[in-house]
């Protein structure tokens, strides 16, 4: 008789381990966007083991909070998902002249930040502010799938706080606000024909050269917003077209990503792009407006002072935008060099993780 297959056991996370060890354990549970279930289970089990925390599960988001009666509440938020794996899970340790590195998908974006936040639950069981931890799914993909957005719709009270800290990679400095990001498709059209008699067709892929010319000639701006200089960017991130090896194609689509400064609203960003690609067939497929730095809120100022270095702008899009829109001042702070995020050799220097935890412990003590 054969027995029914059993589901693989959820790996146990030791939240009292060194945060670099914990980062490694998190990286070893793959969690590409949309497939975070195993990691969310592991995080939920570890948070349930902390007896003083109230824990909530919403899809593959896990939220926990203290009820210590403090006058302030700080929200520590991190996404659990990663961009696709590229032979970089499980994690490995590599030594070079700069030190020891943990090489793994998600090491920078943003499992080291998640590890710091998770480790805080055991390092500082009675913080000076009430704390809410939010670990959520599907941040790296279209805005409509974002797990924090779902939590905001289903349980808005769980996101309340005086300051939200997103543990996105900032190399241990504060990065304020974030650029907006949007994606759109620019499609060129033609007429199908046999490629042996191309003169009766019209090649849509060749027309895509006009779209690429616009992109190549575009000069992105750097826009200073409340003292921080946000670099914009406009890039093709995909291109598709073609019917068969002997057919003149009638359609070609260029997938474009525009990163825009937080001084532009979503509508302004869209209008800017529509003007740039006037006359082309365009369709917007994702829109995530940015957030101004917002570092003037008293509690944000205190945190910046505690970290002790000048804030920088965040060039990527992060959920500081969502917290800011909800009226919660928010900033980015976590280990890892954002320049290494999403790279094939994504890696975090092991000795840069614990200092972020130490800084939070000091600030919240
Ligand atoms: N809906 C957006 C989401 C993109 C989110 C992603 N964020 C990061 O990589 C933050 C890391 C950093 O820059 O520090 C992004 O900016 O691409 C979309 O689908 O594009």
Automatic annotation (TrEMBL):
Keywords (A to Z) from UniProt: Hydrolase, Metal-binding
E.C. designation(s): 3.5.1.18
InterPro entries: Bact_exopeptidase_dim_dom (IPR036264), Peptidase_M20 (IPR002933), Peptidase_M20_dimer (IPR011650), Peptidase_M20A (IPR050072), Succinyl-DAP_deSuclase_DapE (IPR010174)
A single GO molecular function term of this UniProt record: metal ion binding
Span of domain Peptidase M20 dimerisation: 180-277
Record protein name field: Succinyl-diaminopimelate desuccinylase
GO terms classed as biological process: L-arginine biosynthetic process; lysine biosynthetic process via diaminopimelate
SUPFAM superfamilies referenced in this protein's UniProt entry, alphabetically: Bacterial exopeptidase dimerisation domain, Zn-dependent exopeptidases
PANTHER family per UniProt: ACETYLORNITHINE DEACETYLASE, N-ACETYL-L-CITRULLINE DEACETYLASE
Top enzyme category: hydrolase
Pfam entry (one): Peptidase_M20
């Amino acid at each position: 008789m054969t027995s029914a297959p059993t589901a693989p056991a959820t790996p146990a996370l030791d939240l009292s381990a060194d945060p670099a060890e914990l980062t490694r354990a998190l990286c070893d549970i793959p969690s590409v966007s949309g497939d975070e279930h195993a990691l969310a289970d592991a995080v939920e089990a570890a948070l349930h083991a902390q007896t003083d925390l109230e824990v909530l599960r919403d899809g593959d988001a896990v939220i926990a909070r203290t009820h210590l009666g403090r006058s302030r509440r700080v929200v520590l938020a991190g996404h659990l998902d990663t961009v696709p794996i590229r032979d970089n899970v499980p994690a490995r340790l590599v030594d070079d002249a700069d030190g020891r590195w943990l090489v793994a998908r998600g090491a920078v974006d943003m499992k080291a930040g998640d590890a710091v936040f998770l480790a805080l639950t055991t390092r500082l069981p009675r913080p000076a502010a009430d704390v809410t931890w939010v670990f959520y799914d599907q941040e790296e993909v279209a805005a409509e799938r974002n797990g924090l957005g779902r939590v905001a719709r289903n349980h808005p009270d769980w996101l309340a706080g005086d300051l939200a800290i997103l543990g996105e990679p900032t190399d241990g400095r504060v990065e304020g606000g974030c650029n907006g990001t949007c994606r759109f498709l620019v499609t060129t059209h033609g007429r199908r024909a046999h490629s042996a008699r191309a003169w009766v067709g019209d090649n849509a892929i060749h027309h895509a050269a006009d779209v690429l010319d616009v992109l190549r000639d575009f000069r992105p701006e750097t826009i200073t917003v409340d003292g921080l200089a946000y670099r914009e960017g406009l890039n093709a991130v995909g291109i598709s077209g073609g019917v068969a090896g002997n057919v003149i194609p009638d359609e070609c689509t260029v997938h474009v990503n525009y990163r825009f400064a937080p001084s532009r609203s979503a509508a302004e960003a869209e209008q800017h792009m529509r003007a740039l690609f006037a006359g082309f067939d365009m369709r917007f497929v994702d829109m995530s407006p940015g957030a101004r730095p917002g570092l003037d809120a008293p509690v944000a100022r205190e945190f910046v002072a505690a970290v002790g270095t000048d804030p920088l702008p965040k060039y990527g899009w992060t959920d500081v935008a969502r917290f800011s829109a909800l009226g919660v001042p928010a900033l980015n702070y976590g280990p890892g060099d954002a320049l290494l995020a999403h790279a094939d050799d994504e890696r975090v220097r092991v000795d840069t993780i614990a200092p972020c935890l130490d800084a939070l412990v000091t600030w919240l003590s």
